[in-house]
Specification:
Length: about 475
């Protein structure tokens, strides 16, 4: 078999990912399935040789039903790996023995129609697992499947080598590893976007450190790098066909999470491909503006204004997960971040005007706590929710010299998840949408913090002169965090 495959740039990171789990999300017909199936051969060729000189592996490909598996997934697989050319299709147990060079990979196809199918799946000894259209698969399957990978080949087939050393438990490395002794247990999946507020959406929005997520751009975006494989105007025709169903267009053409049953996203103009940087943002010269939500869940969004008026979101952090008060948040989260990442950088805190109200217990306001820790603190220009949402939307809907007026560091996963779907308007039992965003923590805390920072950067231009007529502190001091 002589086959050369180059994934489109938007899926290259997914194809080459060496994380334990990797997921690709995108529009219809964006080559996700093809890329995921070709990844089987790519990874199989990396497994260390066994005693017999061959690279043995076993992979299961899962779909939610046997019918869909037969009608779509298996047909796609055989298009690239023909029966009798790339290996042998065994119809009795729906498997394919993929053979090329020194590789022998047993590919098992499994539909999950009933509990017996699930039980058979979870008794397998596997190298890899592939979940096609994972949004249709119950999360329990994913979590259980993660415990079955990396178990074949074992150390009797691929014995330990001195060069591979010991694992972190002091055991000799061998079995399911590559030629350098690195673990080869991997699980990956491909899918159209799941609905917001589901388990899958939360995993994709805030992935653990051992999970890689690739989200492709809209099919109508200039960055859609697979269009040459489709008919002319493929997505334009789909959009016209479904022009009365914006939710369908958002999911299957723009690659956005589906509509949440619990509410409508506040910032529907937020777009991952436009507003999230492809690479980590480098801090520029100049000062930092830190928007702070001073509620029961202290949260901060670190921003910077570029010379051409764009807002860069460098970092976002919260004390919500640790149950922190303001003082502990400052000392354990905010100050360490500033010291390690932005040493010597002038910065100011822009905070909810209500944070200047003194508490009855110790007569100190939240603003006083930040001041006592050495920060220059200013109240936000307004606490009007309409004005705060408007200023963020003004940045989201503008470009400056062809670049997004608001750009978020990809490491700010909590804020990104909030902007995508978690910050939303509640829908009541009658189907009416509230006029104020729901207070869902920490999503609302992240977005409130961003709003305060954007108000400061905007200077009142988007809000009119009246919005700027807020009582401000007269004292001015430049804070430099050393």
């Amino acid at each position: 078999m002589n086959l050369t495959f180059t994934p489109p740039g938007s899926l290259a990171a997914f194809f080459l990912s060496q994380s334990m789990a990797s997921f690709a999300v995108g529009p219809y017909a964006s080559t996700k399935t093809t890329c995921g199936l070709m990844k089987i051969a790519y990874e199989a060729a990396r497994v260390a040789r066994a005693r017999d000189g061959l690279r043995h592996s076993r992979c299961v490909v899962v779909r939610n039903t046997r019918q869909m598996l037969t009608d779509t997934t298996i047909k796609d697989f055989l298009k690239w790996f023909p029966d009798g050319v790339a290996g042998v299709l065994r119809k009795t147990d729906t498997s394919f023995l993929l053979k090329f060079d020194d590789v022998e990979c047993e590919v098992l196809f499994r539909g999950l129609d009933d509990q017996n199918d699930v039980r058979r799946l979870l008794s397998l000894q596997l190298t890899f697992g592939v979940i096609d259209e994972f949004k249709e698969i119950h999360p329990d399957i994913y979590e259980a499947l993660a415990g079955r990978i990396g178990r074949y080949p074992d150390k009797t087939m691929v014995p330990p080598k001195a060069a591979w050393g010991m694992d972190d438990k002091g055991n000799p490395v061998g079995g399911c590893v590559d030629d350098n002794g690195n673990a080869m247990k991997k699980l990956w999946g491909m899918s159209n976007p799941p609905d917001a507020d589901t388990w899958w959406e939360r995993l994709l929005s805030e992935p653990p450190t051992n999970v890689h997520v690739t989200i492709q751009p809209s099919g109508l975006s200039p960055e859609a790098d697979w269009l040459h494989l489709l008919d002319a105007n493929y997505y334009e025709n789909l959009a016209e066909l479904h022009k009365g169903d914006q939710d369908w267009i958002d999911v299957f053409i723009h690659g956005k999470f589906g509509k949440s049953l619990s509410g409508q996203p506040v910032f529907r103009c937020f777009d991952m491909a436009t507003h999230v940087a492809k690479e980590p943002i480098q801090v520029q010269s100049g000062s930092l503006v830190i928007g702070v939500d001073a509620g029961l869940n202290p949260t901060a969004v670190v921003t910077q204004l570029t010379h051409d008026g764009r807002v860069l979101v460098l970092n976002a952090l919260t004390g919500h997960d640790g149950g922190m008060g303001a003082l502990r948040f400052i000392r354990e989260r905010l100050k360490p971040l500033l010291s390690a990442t932005y040493p010597g950088r002038p910065c100011s805190i822009i905070i909810d005007p209500a944070a200047f109200q003194r508490a009855q217990t110790d007569e100190r306001s939240v603003a006083d706590i930040y001041k006592a820790e050495g920060f220059m603190v200013r109240p936000a220009r307004t606490n009007s929710i309409a004005a705060r949402l408007a200023v963020v939307e003004s940045y989201l809907t503008r470009t400056v010299n062809g670049k997004a007026a608001l750009l978020i560091n990809p490491t700010a996963t909590g804020l990104i998840a909030a902007m995508r779907s978690q910050y939303r308007y509640r829908i009541n039992s009658k189907g009416d949408v509230d006029d104020k965003p729901d207070k869902v923590h920490p999503a609302s805390d992240y977005c409130d913090s961003l709003q305060y920072a954007c108000l400061q950067h905007d200077g009142g231009k988007a809000l009119g002169a009246s919005a700027a007529n807020v009582k401000r502190e007269v004292k001015k001091a430049a804070y430099v965090y050393a």
